[in-house]
Amino acid sequence: MQAITETPNELTTGLDSVSPLEMIRLFRQTDGQIFSGYRHHSGLNDNDSIQTLTNMIESIRDLIHQSCRSDGKKTVDIVVAGAGTSGRLAFFLANSARRWSTPHLTNNVNYHYLIAGGDRALTVGIEGAEDDLVRAVTDIDAILARPNSTVVYIGVTCGLSAPYVAGQIDRLLSCDSSSQRHIISLMGFNPIELARVNPIEKWDKSFADVARALEQSARTAPTKRFIINPVVGPEPLTGSTRMKSGSATKILLELILSISMSSNPDIDVYATIINRLNEYEQVCRATYRHEDTIAPLVAAAGHSLLSGGHVYYLGQDSLGVVGFVDASETVPTFGAGAFDVRGFILDSADGKSGWMAMQNADGDHSHISEEYCISQAHFQDKIIPTLTSRDTVILIAPPVAVGGIDLIALAPIVTAIIKRDQTYDNIPSIHLIMFPATNPPFTQLVLGNKTTNINIQLPFKEIDGVPSYIEMSLKWILNAVTTGGFVLAGKVFGNRMIDLGLTNNKLYYRSCGIVAKLFGVDDNTARQCLLRSVYSLDKDTPVPADIDTAPVYKHIEHAERNNITHIIPVALLLASGHFQSPSAARELLRQTPSIRKILNDAMAKSS
Q: For the structural domain made of 498-606, what CATH number should be given?
């Protein structure tokens, strides 16, 4: 049976044939399933899910309480780990946890994030990182080696499939089998029986094996082992777990971390979870009530991406990081160019810029390449001089109640854009998102119809001083912008990604499934078409035995090493029967921006 996170959502079957406004309405319906649940499955608001969360949070609070009574002799290391989107959210929420940490916890509780591929993977996908079991074990062993520490581990893998998380849970279970000292948990959005059963390469176990082992361990250690897997339904864009599953991940981690660190000794954990879930749902509804102002953002992004322009986000502190994360996910999701969508971090109120404002573990990465240059200064010095009317710039205003600053933080950006073109003839499309509107929109006064303002009014904004609800609302908006933009740019067929990156084992098998489903070929034919695309083999040339029988990671390495692009679209065109040569199909794709249009033409010829 297919995993729910990999199943097409029946609500968005025609996603590629609707207007930007209609897309927003479809996203509103699918995001509503986060709270309403999906079919008969246990969901986020069901009692069993809330009770599991309650039990886990109470266990963490007990550990923290014991640590605080030890006068610093015992510490608690809270670790959130994942690959891809899950790893980026692990980074994001570890920083939120530090902001929630009260003075009495400073010497007793430490917060860590682990992302497959390390900090470089925060910006770009690292080939094979999710499947690297050696790195997975090395990363968690570094935490286990800390003296006098008890670990709270939260492994996040939306589809219950990431080898990186499986390797760490397996390691923790083997190290903790007798003492049962550490809290070990798994977070995802499929039932356990739908965890991935494919054997993990270079290992003798599958993810399902590890999940069942954790489930078995939970029977004997119910206060130390937890599986948190409410079903939130299929993604609006099939398999794109950065959207609904990513939102549910953020909600769950914020519930766990903020309530666990509450200084209120009498807090009713169960009731607090219910109240917070109600607040998140109200924020979701309030966000999508602005559909009429969000839709033009989607249209602008689509125009930019289809015409060879760019989409740029600029925001401060955590809101800037939300934009950064959304931008970083477009390359593996849509096969986007590295510079199609970029996120930049505005200088913080205390003078931090770029990676310093990000507060990641490994510090400044801007020396690696242009893709890692994310500072306000870089945007002003290098990007603004290149802006044209084909580009879209989305400015995210800092919330006054949190940062104590106003639209002044954005003034240098707007001023610099104006100075470069006094005629306004080549000014990009500029949009200002505010939570809420704070001052008269000065940018409209200066730039006229080149700027639109989106004033998002929310019923709730913060959790204990952290703008968690604003971040959540912004995530929903920006996910809609990039997903809708790439739909309009022809990177989506129906509600399926058709140009995703081939960077790990999971995406290889997902790609085979896309080819088989869209052109109705059998699994072996789909796999053969994919291999022909990867190795540029014409259809009249047999696939060599050494390629046909090679493990998946060899194909991924070859594609990465040789910079093979448009792997799935080429495989789809080969499966259509109207193309014999991968090179001819790839040349057509280079000439025609809309992959969807090419596939529609191929399907019309096949019918």
A: 1.10.8.1080
